[in-house]
UniProtKB/TrEMBL annotation:
GO MF terms, alphabetically ordered: kinase activity
Single GO biological process annotation from the record: regulation of DNA-templated transcription
Native source species: Enterobacter agglomerans
PROSITE patterns: PAS
Pfam families hit by this protein: PAS
Name of the molecule in the record: Signal transduction histidine kinase involved in nitrogen fixation and metabolism regulation
All copies of domain PAS, residue ranges: 18-89
Record keyword Magnesium present: no
Amino acid sequence: MLRARDLAEAQSTQKTALSKFLDNIIANIPSCVIVEDAITREILLVNDRTQQLFGLSKSLIVNKRPHECMSPELSDYFNNLADVALRSEGMHEREQLLMTASGERILHTRAHRD
């Protein structure tokens, strides 16, 4: 019994370390990263670049749907892209000039379902 508990704790520690490592990598990707729940459409994860582009802290984005934390124009853009990605397989790309907290930007986005 004790050995099984030790193994479980070791695996848990390894998973925690791996999760922190991956979070650090994602946080420092120079492009925006947004991970959204396919069913609820809640935003599960954003990186630092996303926070800069939208001018919002992670706490104001995560666990919200795009229409709850973005302008209607940005929300529509991301919702339409997610709709296309959910309906069909493969990588879906879109490019559009949009107003962000950093001013007008051409957003070149890619989406796919997992």
